[in-house]
Amino acid sequence: QLALLYEEVLYTIRHRLGKPEPHQVADSQELYAYVQKAFGMDTEEHRVIMQQVMELESPIYCLKATVKEAKGILGKDVSGFSDPYCLLGIEAKSQEPAHPDHRKRMKAVVKDLIPEDQIHRTQVISQTLSPVWDETFILEFEDMETASFHLDMWDSDVVESMRHKLGELTDLHGLKRIFKDARKDKGQDDFLGNVVLRLKDLHCWDDRWYQLEPRTETYPNRGHCHLQFLLTHKKRTTTSSRTQPSYTVHRHLLQQLVSYEILQHQAGSIAWDGELSRHASTVLYLHATQKDLSDFHQVMAQWLAYSKLYQSLEFNSNCLLHQITSIEYQWAQERLRPQQKAELAESFQSLLTYGVSLIRRYRIIFPLSVPRSKERLQSLLRVLVQMCKTKAFHELCTLSPDLHHMVSTALKSGTTEWFHMQKEHLKPIVKSMEENGKALSRLLLEVIEDLQQCQKIWNKFFINTLKLNIFSIAYLELESLVAKHVQEQLHEVDSSMSKPTAESLFQLYMNLQELYRMKDFLPRRDGPLALSNFHQWFKEAVPLWLQKAYSTALERAQRAVQMDQLKPFGDHNKHSTSTVDLSTCYAQIVKTWQQLSWPDPEEAFMIMVKLVEDMCKISLMYCRLIKDRAEALSLSEQNEGEAANRLCIVVNNIKQLRLLILKLPAQLDWAQLEQRTGAVIDQQQIQHTLHNQLDSTVACLDHEVRDVVQALATKLEKGIARHIQELSSSNNTKEPEDSIIPLMKFLESELQYLNEHLVQENFKSLLTLLWHHTLSVLSAAAAPQVPSAQHYKRLLCALKSLELCFYAEGCGLPLETLHTAAFLSLETHLGLCSATSRKLIQKYFSKRIQQQLDMSSEKFGAVTIKALYRPSEQKLRVEVLNAANLIPLDSNGSSDPFVQLTLEPRHEFPEVVARTTQCKKNELHPLFDEAFDFLIPPEKCRQEGACLLLTVFDYDTLGSNDLEGEAFFPLRHLPGLEDDDDKADMGRVPQTRLPLTHPKPTDEILRLLESRKGDKEAQAFVKLRKQRAKQSKETE
């Protein structure tokens, strides 16, 4: 068969016709050499077959000429139109004119030069200047070199009456035509032009417009004629041409050459895009034209050849797409014989079956690791879809199943085959539960990767071409297969499994979980999936998983503490490396919870309780271990500074651990768990188990922090107490500010060190402890009654300086933390003890003035006055109006009241003498209505404690006067004191009613003044106040 086909192609080259096209190979020897390689013929085989071809009879050479149309021809009739027709034929021997003018004597070229039986004639097209014939004629010839094609165009002349011609007359030209016709013979046709071509100038196929040439120069422009030429063979004597249809032979030749071209493609068959070499194109073109194959039959032959080759030599299927599109465009069923229909139908069915088989095995045929696999599969899908949509397929393959159904079925079976192949490939050599678990995990990873490729890559190709969701098909098939296989392998799992087995099952569980979550990509689901309750298969392994997570975290935490040198981790951190490891331990446990993602809410809650319990146990264990580590390092070095530094690191680490614990509810998403378990677990139970457990652990950590901070504080408290003791026992005469310098330097040094080594929260906790201790030490130093005010000044200065130190311009303790009740009490006490006697007296009167202002009860009665200050006279005028509700002090149930007016403190008004009203006998509501003037400068009125003391006495003739009560009127707010001139008038000054008071038996200021034995002024003041106190009816 190959030899016969080789004979056919050699015969084609030997009897080549036509002038070569520019893109074709012109040298026949090149073509012989090419086909010899393409057919794999050795030299001897080629010589023998070539000899046979040379001995074969030559074919009959034919010119297939098609007269299509003409335009712009001359109008020969009186109507201005013509009735054109053509005469055409081939002159065996071309006559070369010696001179262009020789053409004038060729009156009738075709009729004169070509035998009548070889002349062909077209139809006459009436009354037109643009005739359309579209008639084809087969013109035989013998010698290509000497033969020429002749075509004459004539105007058919039919005998008409003069009356009829005059009726068609339209212009002067028509009239001249009538006179010319009258001179010529009746029925003689008019010459319109001719075309003469040498056959050797023609290509195998030509299609163009040719200019109609004149016989004379009278009308040189005679229009154009559209001609189409095809050089073909008749009666080819090769065996193939005699025994097989032309398109069949052409298909076999095409198949042979294309297979050779594909194999010669350097980049491989898959990359071949269908472009043939010049040699192959030339041979196929010559064969198709010589056999006079129509475009449709050429396309059909190409389709039959390419579709068959594709099944053995895979190449770019876009080639097939081009051909199937051409078949659809040119399809006309009636042009095919039954055998051709059968061949075409069989090619459709064969390619469809083969293409679907490729799709079934697409994972192997189109692996993503091979370049352009995606494009190859997409191209195949497009070819199959386009083929099944054609009219030819529907008419010839009526019984073929639906492509969508075929591909869907193929994908299901292919997916099942692939799964079983993977299962066999990954089957463990050693049969054990642990190895089975590992093998299942590897199988699941392969399945997940395959589904990801389906979802991310392949799905869009199948949806765009076939409207088919390959991910859904693959997922539903694989999910069911995986569920069945895993259940078969896990039927022996129980709680007594080994740890390695449990670990392998955990990986399997996570892989199954990932596979199950991919269901979210399904467009729809008709029912529950086989993996819906897969977590139940692993219930026995969960305790082992949790124990593994706990033991791993515990060991890591212990190892981290053993390796920890208790030095800051990095320049910006104040905790050590073990906290980083501990954070990683917790993160791993949190990750375990997230990986489990246990579906059953009640069981998930129990898992959460266990995880939180384990993390709390680890945190408490860490506190114990890190303190032991610090103690061990300190014992080995015996360096007090380093020991303090390690304590700082310890407290920072525990504080960092506390932060980790507090983050657990958010990291473990307790809120979402509570929402899930709301229907099965009571809220109080969640609070009792989870929150209380966490709160208890945090409280333990806080206690540990306080213990360590207290240990740090204890080291400083001794130094603070020593410096304060030295400060309080000092008898030097230094200023207080100078005396406290040693204390402040000590604190500055120690606190700066601790601030650098403690996190802020721990540092402030330490400051709080130190502040309370410092206050207690200062209070103890200020407790004994020391007559020296300088002693208390030093303590007060220390208190103020310490307040500034601990406040640190807002960077230390806030003022509300510093200003405790103890601080305020101590500040007041020291302020009093450090004051001068006169200052204390002023404070005493300020205190009595405030008591007067706060007094609302009139149990001792009241006195009413009016007071006015005149700045121009520097005079205070006081009008004592009356007293009311006095206590009866006489035996007769009444009193003899009078009022004593003094300006206090006495050291501020030494020259102002006391004034007294008249005594009113037997009156409890006396009316005095007396006025008194006091000369005092205004600045004296503004002094602290400056007041008008009104003392109401009951006059006693036999002994000392009895005290009715005393009232304190402050001078700072006197009417008229702040005016520049005497605008105020006594008549417009409001009355002031002052409730009478009695002094209390004890007073801190009086005790301080009394302790100053060497101060006469203080002693005199105390004596006076004691006399009043003796008469007082006020109790503590």
TrEMBL record:
<feature type="domain" description="C2">
    <location>
        <begin position="859"/>
        <end position="984"/>
    </location>
</feature>
<dbReference type="GO" id="GO:0006887">
    <property type="term" value="P:exocytosis"/>
</dbReference>
<keyword id="KW-0963">Cytoplasm</keyword>
<dbReference type="InterPro" id="IPR014770">
    <property type="entry name" value="Munc13_1"/>
</dbReference>
<dbReference type="InterPro" id="IPR052095">
    <property type="entry name" value="UNC-13_domain"/>
</dbReference>
<feature type="domain" description="MHD1">
    <location>
        <begin position="506"/>
        <end position="626"/>
    </location>
</feature>
<dbReference type="Pfam" id="PF06292">
    <property type="entry name" value="MUN"/>
</dbReference>
<dbReference type="InterPro" id="IPR000008">
    <property type="entry name" value="C2_dom"/>
</dbReference>
<dbReference type="GO" id="GO:0005770">
    <property type="term" value="C:late endosome"/>
</dbReference>
<protein>
    <submittedName>
        <fullName>UN13D protein</fullName>
    </submittedName>
</protein>
<dbReference type="GO" id="GO:0070382">
    <property type="term" value="C:exocytic vesicle"/>
</dbReference>
<dbReference type="InterPro" id="IPR014772">
    <property type="entry name" value="Munc13_dom-2"/>
</dbReference>
<dbReference type="GO" id="GO:0055037">
    <property type="term" value="C:recycling endosome"/>
</dbReference>
<feature type="region of interest" description="Disordered">
    <location>
        <begin position="979"/>
        <end position="1003"/>
    </location>
</feature>
<dbReference type="InterPro" id="IPR035892">
    <property type="entry name" value="C2_domain_sf"/>
</dbReference>
<keyword id="KW-0268">Exocytosis</keyword>
<keyword id="KW-0967">Endosome</keyword>
<comment type="similarity">
    <text>Belongs to the unc-13 family.</text>
</comment>
<feature type="domain" description="MHD2">
    <location>
        <begin position="737"/>
        <end position="844"/>
    </location>
</feature>
<dbReference type="Pfam" id="PF00168">
    <property type="entry name" value="C2"/>
</dbReference>
<dbReference type="InterPro" id="IPR010439">
    <property type="entry name" value="MUN_dom"/>
</dbReference>
<feature type="domain" description="C2">
    <location>
        <begin position="42"/>
        <end position="188"/>
    </location>
</feature>
